[in-house]
């Protein structure tokens, strides 16, 4: 399966049900049986199955065969996990220039469906008191505005990017680190590239 075509949560559930059914019965379930298991109508299941065929996860032996579903990619559960691209590194100390160094990071359930989310790897310790450490991966919802107190990916007037808490006050913007040893950054304006929604730590 292409990493750019992740399965939805419902599609992952259908895949697991299909795999278990085939293991127990030796044949694939009908669309009616899948629909009954999940308490939905056949049309809904048909749509999910058609999308999973498009993504290369399922195929049909022949048209019109009621038990003709086959799993194409029957590797580990990891193969159906959502996949994000790590676009580069983001400063959590002094601002640094962002560099696009694509890498893949796969995980489930941390990214709500329908939201535009990307990942950045943190460098520096300016957000350590918010439990964001050097080397962590932050999940960022792509947005151009932020509310006071939100942790944002901010691009400064000189083009450098940094990770800080956002505050609009007294006609200027304060980008506040979460480290008592560091001073805030004050700017008249800033470009918001997104708001942090989660943190992933790899040990």
Describe the structure.
The chain has 203 residues and is an alpha+beta fold. It folds into two domains: 9-79, Arc Repressor Mutant, subunit A (Orthogonal Bundle); 82-200, Ribbon (Umud Fragment, subunit A). The chain is built from three helices and eleven strands; from the N terminus they run αααβββββββββββ. Strand 8 (161-169) and strand 9 form a beta hairpin. The protein is elongated, with a radius of gyration of 22 Å.
Task: Give the averaged pLDDT, no decimals.
Answer: 81
CA distance, first residue to last residue: 28 Å
How many separate helices? Answer: 3
Order of helices and strands: HHHEEEEEEEEEEE
Biggest sheet, open or closed, and with what strands and sense? Answer: 9 strands, mixed
Beta fraction: 25-35%
Strands, total number: 11
Question: Which CATH architecture of the largest domain would you pick?
Answer: Ribbon
Number of domains: 2
CATH topology title of the largest domain: Umud Fragment, subunit A
CATH class of the largest domain: Mainly Beta
Give the overall shape.
Answer: elongated
Low-confidence stretches: 75-81
The main sheet orders its strands as 4-3-5-6-11-7-8-9-10
User: Which class best fits the helix and strand makeup?
Assistant: alpha+beta
For CATH, the homologous superfamily of the largest domain is named as Umud Fragment, subunit A
Helix content: 10-25%
**Cα-atom radius of gyration:** 22 Å
């Amino acid at each position: 399966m292409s990493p750019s075509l992740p399965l939805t949560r419902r599609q992952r559930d259908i895949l697991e049900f299909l795999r278990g059914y085939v293991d127990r019965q030796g044949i694939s379930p009908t669309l009616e049986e899948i629909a009954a298991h999940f308490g939905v109508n056949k049309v809904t299941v048909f749509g999910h199955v058609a999308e999973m065929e498009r993504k290369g996860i399922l195929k049909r032996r022949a048209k019109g065969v009621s038990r003709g579903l086959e799993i194409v990619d029957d590797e580990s559960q990891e193969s159906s996990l959502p996949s994000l691209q790590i676009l580069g590194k983001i400063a959590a100390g002094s601002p640094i220039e962002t560099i696009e160094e694509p890498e893949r990071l796969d995980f489930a359930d941390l990214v709500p469906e329908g939201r535009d989310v990307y990942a950045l790897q943190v460098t520096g310790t300016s957000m350590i008191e918010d439990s964001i450490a050097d080397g962590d991966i932050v999940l960022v919802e792509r947005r151009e505005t932020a509310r006071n107190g939100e942790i944002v990916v901010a691009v400064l007037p000189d083009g450098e990017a940094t990770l800080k808490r956002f505050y609009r006050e007294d006609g200027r913007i304060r980008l506040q680190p979460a480290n008592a040893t560091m001073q805030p950054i004050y700017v008249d304006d800033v470009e918001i590239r997104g708001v942090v929604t989660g943190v992933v730590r790899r040990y």
